[in-house]
Amino acid sequence: MLDRCYRPKHPRFARYGGRDALGGVSISVCSRWRFGEGDLSGFECFLADMGVRPSIDYTLDRKHHDDDYEPTRCQWATVADQNNNKSNNKFITIGDETLSLARWVDKFDKRVHYSQILRRIWAGDDPTKALMQSYPMPKKRKSKCSATS
To answer: Which element (helix H / strand E) includes 40?
Structure first.
């Protein structure tokens, strides 16, 4: 977290701390977590605010992809949850519910690949129709390698 926001040589710095160079607003870490407070180190403050990670399946997530790292804007989340909190997600509203396309695919319990529905939407299909229509699953390609004995 600190490296992504404050170390220019970090591979992901441009997407976090270096956003201002790209015309955006950089992501920062609250001073309590960065420098500490009172007799507590920054890490001890972070631990006091966020608690111990619930399990290895969870990582720190900002509730909105443009938020800074601070107690009220962060949560523990799974990779699946975090994937629905990305700036490049396609959000679709059906009725009065807005979800990411990935969440809609899960909700409809479709045995269809996300990219297949996304291609239909890009081609001009109505998102609701694209989600509700039945599509054949792609056929698996036969391997060109054959075992010979």
So the answer is: none
From residue 143, alpha-carbon distances to 62, 139, 146, 147 in Å are 43, 12, 7, 10
Domain range summary for the chain, segments of one domain joined by +: 2-82, 91-132
The alpha carbon torsion through 34, 46, 100, 117 (nearest 10 deg) reads 80
Q: For residue 22, how far is the Cα from the chain centroid?
A: 21
pLDDT in tens, 71-80: 999 999 998 7
Q: How far apart are CA 72 and CA 59, in angstroms?
A: 16
Residue-wise burial string across 64-94, b where 16 or more C-beta atoms lie within 10 A, e elsewhere:
eeeebbeeeebebbeeeebeebeeeeeebee
- Residue 134: predicted pLDDT: 62
Tokens of 33: 């977590």
Give the Cα separation of 135 and 132 in Å (integer): 9
